[in-house]
Amino acid sequence: MKKFLQLRERKIELGKKTLVMGILNVTPDSFSDGGFFYSAESAFNHAKKIISDGADIIDIGAESTRPNFQPISAEVEISRLEKIIPAVKSLGVPISIDTYKPEVAEFALELGADILNDVTGLSDKKMIEVAKKFSAPVISMHCSKERLEGKELKNIIGDIKNFFRQSLKICAENNLQVILDPGIGFGKTQEENLTVLKNLRDLKFIDGEEIFLLLGASRKSVIGYATNFEIDNRDEATGAICVLAISAGVDIVRVHNVEMISKMCKMADCLIRE
What we know:
Distance between the termini: 15 Å
Strand content: 15-25%
Number of helices: 12
Radius of gyration: 17 Å
Shape: globular
Structural class: alpha/beta
Order of helices and strands: EEEHEHHEHEHEHHEHHEEEHHEH
Helix content: 40-55%
Strand order of the largest sheet: 3-4-5-6-7-8-11-12
Largest sheet: 8 strands, parallel, barrel
Number of strands: 12
């Protein structure tokens, strides 16, 4: 049976092909591309390029969430988005807004964004209310609360599954579609990041229920940990992770180098999905 992600203006079929989410960071300090697409013009031009390269969704973020990031106010985040979202919206590709602030999410959805991408895993009830107001699908990302509180975490896969169960419950109660993200690089040791990547198939079904699964591992430090590759030399390794993810049933991959990764996904889809 076909499954769809219901957006306000269209449906996106899930499972037929791997959806490539292209990253558009309009920040001065993101870990990989901070400052590259900070102006409205450069952001718009980059969005056009990654769409032509094969992006199915554009994920726009106006605040870096890299390790040790410096938080900014909602007002500053909004000021970075107000010209960029309408411009990217005109290109006709669904937009995901990467924010954990409900006021920013509401502003972005009013401007035409389609999906909420919350790295705090819907921990703020106001975010759920915003999603309900616009009937927007949400991406709920795992970040271990125990680890952030300095507690010992014995089973990372079990912790993620419990988080997924809670997200599924919250979204079912609020009639929201949810895409679940295991949160590579968030509240995890590097060994735990590797464990998650090796066990993605185990996360595709929660208590027998198939879930929508997103993976964001593009250029992240776990690649450097495993290979010693520097940030600007991690795209091929990112592609290897994405192919592994497709074989495990991941529906969406969030990446920087859309041109390279979309080609790898296309071939992997031919072998795995068809």
